[in-house]
Design brief:
The structure holds two protein chains of two kinds. By secondary structure, chain A is mostly helical. In chain A, about 75% of the residues lie in helices and about 0% in strands. Chain B has a domain of about 220 residues. Classes of the chains: A mainly alpha, B alpha+beta.
Amino acid sequence: MEERLEDWLEEGYAVSYRTACLILGNQADAEEAVQEAFLRAWRFRDSLTSVPSIKPWLYRVVVNSCYSKLRQEIPHRDRRADDGPLSSLAAPDSDPAVCAQRSEVADTVLAALQRLPVSLRVPVVLRYYADLSERDIAVAIGRRQGTVKSRLHEARRRLAADPSMVTLAGDGAVDDSVEA
Amino acid sequence: MTLLDDEVLGALLHELGDSYAVPASGIADTLRRVRRGDDERSDPGPTARDDTGSDGPAPHTASGMIRSHRMLSAAAALIVLLALAGGAAVLGSTSPAPKTAVGLKPLNRALPPSTRHTPASSDSSAAKSSTSAPATRFGTAGPALGAPASANAPVTSSSPSLPAGAVGQPARIEQTGSLDLTVPRGALSSTVTKLTTLASTYDGFVANSQTQSNGSAGGAPNASVTLQVPVADFSALLAQAKSLGTTSALTTKATDVTGQYVDLQERITALEASRQQYLTIMAKATTIGDVLAVQAQLDTLQSQIEQLQGQLGVLQSETDYSTLTVSVSEAGRHHHRSPSPTVSGIVKAWHDSLHGFAVGVDGVIRLAGPALFALLCLAALVLGGRLTWRRLQRRSL
């Protein structure tokens, strides 16, 4: 079991880190959260024997670590220095025009995502980035599947109503970005 | 309602998420710490937070511990408070003390402020109970007259000695009593005659007398005689009356009205002083208008004085003479005031049933308050426990 967990931690670090980035909106916080989550997971690895699937279990640890960050630390301090827009996130080999457009889309989507309440943001990230099923999301956030479904629906509705997303869709940037 | 397409949203988030560069050393550091079993509890060494140069608060283990302890302390305090409140509620619902306290109020209200102080020790004890008050006052001379008397309670024949008044004058006590006597058959009229004679013996009089040769509903002959004798002779009269037959019920009551008496006297004195002033003014009045105005005031004062004097006279009469109502019935038959023993089994069962129903309703009402309180406490505990359980579940992972 330890080897299996260790393998999963190694393989799942990147997606866990990026999931935490999307939830927290900050890379440094995400790095700390994932590190703490992995340490917690390792500490409680004995409970894995009673868990049917390791993936939602580990996501639950990551999500709880993010919750802990959001609840205990982030509200009590100034924003980190690297909380700025994702200006350098585009692939370095892209065309500058495309790169600028994708960067703008990414900033807009991230801002809209951060405007969602945490209770809606987490299911959205787990569903549309981590590709978890609704059942696994329910395990990860400790809620019923129906709750997950309703939260996803509400999150999609809010994102669609978000002014910046509406503008993005009106400019056709979303379609371009998706096609790219 | 517009919704974002799942595919579009997934693509956007994938693109956004994948654009985050994964730190090269992140996985290596984490796995290194994982492999050596390093965690924040056993090794407070350098952590990722230190690496990032965060200016945030201390690692959350300490704050989390503090929060946890604070939460546990709050929960413990809540439980202790609930237990205390519940205990108080249970004790409060069973303790008879409040009833005694409530019983004190009428006596205190009955006494005017001038008599609420306690010039003698007997007064302070008198405030303890409306029924024991006269017992204390008369206690120096013999057994309690005013105490709740049993049917065969011994009564002294000596006259009670009245204590000094609350304001430096003899106490004014209204003494009343009720005695139910059972006499042998054919002895009703002779008993009534003896009672009438007793009143004369003690310089009293018969205030009321009723005799029924055939009792109500075909019952035995009975009579009711109301005697009034000087207060000092009340206990002697009571003893003599009891000796005329078998006592089936005895009730005595003494009320201290010294305060009211003195209050009336003082008010009359004050009004008379005012009247004297007006008379002086009247002597100096020169115009008809002045005379009429003063005369109107004098008439009002005179009316008030006479009213108060009337009240004082009534009070004086009531306290000079005690009243004893003796109900006499012949043996073998039951007095009309006694509950009828000839009720059938069905009627008795019906009455018992009604009584049981009333007792049941009373019990339900009594239990409703504590039960509601207990339910609220339980709900609070369940809610708190559920929240705590959820929080602990999150923290444990």
